[in-house]
Structure formats: structure tokens, C-alpha cells
Design goal:
The structure holds 2 protein chains of 2 kinds. Chain A is an all-beta fold. Chain A contains no helices and 11 strands. Chain B is globular. Chain B starts with a strand and ends with a strand. Classes of the chains: A mainly beta, B mainly beta.
């Protein structure tokens, strides 16, 4: 079983649609949770952190359920520019200076006109 | 602006060549850096944790003699792919975390071995 599991997609949605991605993680000691966005042939870029209380950043809403070890990302009013691979990332602190990140396989989103 | 700089961004070389990739933290000291590898259509996989002044910690299945890591200063870690072969062709990315900030990634190095 993978440590961080995501539906690989692709999710093909029209502009303006609402789309939701899910992610589950296996290590209950995981401390921090993130969604990263990766464009083709580029490095991942942080989209948002995920908190148990849920957090929203514009059209993006992230949610964490520690009991179920489940993370979600909701994108409202999809834009063409949202097309990318979305990586669910779980973090475990290695030492005072660094966190080890474990990446899900990514969910590919394609927003079409 | 970029907080982690990686160089080179693209390397094409013959089989058997050794390739060095640099990862620098800009404007902050990084006692720990991480090296990842990403094959096409797959996610990033942690290769090793680079520790300043000590040996790197390698993930299971990653050959330490094949992928040499040197973290000689607080702002520089290098990954050397020794005697690279076509199966080593991949996207290599480093990351580091400034204090009280999330992990930042370098731009990545696309390695193609012919």
C-alpha cells in the first residue's frame, strides 16, 4: 500500500465546474499536510497547507480529517489555468531543520473551454 | 523570488559519464536538504536526505555509491550521479526549508543519458 494515495485521474472538466480531489495517507504520525501543484516538466509549487479546521484560499478549499487520514481539495469555478497535476503531500519532521515530504502520485486535472 | 536554486536545469550526456547537480539555499542556511527523483508520469520519490557535515541518509533501494551526496556547507548540497546510464534518466529535484516556511523546491534538473 502506498503511503499517500490519490486517484490519478485525469479529471476532465469544463470551465466553471467545481472539482474535488481526495487523498488518503497511511502514517498516522504525519504532522503537516499540503497540496502542491505541478505543471508539466516543472517543479512542484505549494498551493496551500491543509488544516483540520479546513482552510480556504480564493477558489480553493482544503480539508483534513485526521481520524480518517483523509485530505481533500475543492476547486470552484475552474479556470483553464488550473490544468495541472495536483500532488497531495504529507510531512514528517526529520529534525529541527527539515521535514521529510511524502508525495502522492498526483491527480491530473484538465479544464477545457 | 527563488529561495532554492538548482543547477544545471538540463543535462544530456553519454552513458558512463558522471553528472553533478548543485542545490543551493539562497538567503538562508539549510542543514538539511532533500533530493527527489521523478520518472515520467510518476510522482516524486525521496532519494536521500542530505545533512550538512555528515553522511546522507538514503532511502531503501537507492544506491549510495551510485548517487553521491555532499553537503559541505550550509548553503550547498551536491548530488553526483556516477557512471550514469539511460535508466538514470529522470527529473531530479532538491528541496530545503527556510525557518518557519514550507518546503521550497529547486527548479529541477532534467537528466537525459544517451
Amino acid at each position: 500500500r502506498k503511503e499517500v494515495e490519490q486517484d490519478p485521474g485525469p479529471f476532465n472538466v469544463p470551465e466553471g465546474a467545481t472539482v474535488a480531489f481526495n487523498c488518503t495517507y497511511s502514517n498516522s504520525a504525519s504532522q503537516s499536510f499540503f497540496w502542491y501543484r505541478q505543471d508539466c516538466r516543472k517543479e512542484p509549487k505549494l498551493l496551500m497547507s491543509v488544516y483540520s479546521s479546513g482552510n480556504e484560499d480564493g477558489r480553493f478549499t482544503a480539508q483534513l480529517n485526521r481520524a480518517s487520514q483523509y485530505i481533500s481539495l475543492l476547486i470552484r469555478d475552474s479556470k483553464l489555468s488550473d490544468s495541472a497535476t495536483y500532488l497531495c503531500v504529507v510531512s514528517l519532521q526529520v529534525n529541527n531543520a527539515g521535514n521529510m515530504l511524502t508525495f502522492g502520485g498526483g491527480t491530473r486535472l484538465m479544464v477545457k473551454p | 523570488g527563488a529561495v532554492v536554486s538548482q543547477h544545471p536545469s538540463w543535462v544530456i550526456c553519454k552513458s558512463g559519464t558522471s553528472v553533478k547537480i548543485e542545490c543551493r539555499s539562497l538567503d538562508f542556511q539549510a542543514t538539511t536538504m532533500f533530493w527527489y527523483r521523478q520518472f515520467p508520469k510518476q510522482s516524486l520519490m525521496l532519494m536521500a536526505t542530505s545533512n550538512e557535515g555528515s553522511k546522507a541518509t538514503y532511502e531503501q533501494g537507492v544506491e549510495k555509491d551510485k548517487f553521491l551526496i555532499n553537503h559541505a556547507s550550509l548553503t550547498l548540497s551536491t548530488l553526483t550521479v556516477t557512471s550514469a546510464h539511460p535508466e538514470d534518466s529522470s527529473f531530479y529535484i532538491c528541496s530545503a526549508r527556510p525557518r518557519n516556511q514550507p518546503q521550497h523546491f529547486g527548479d529541477g534538473t532534467r537528466l537525459s543519458i544517451l
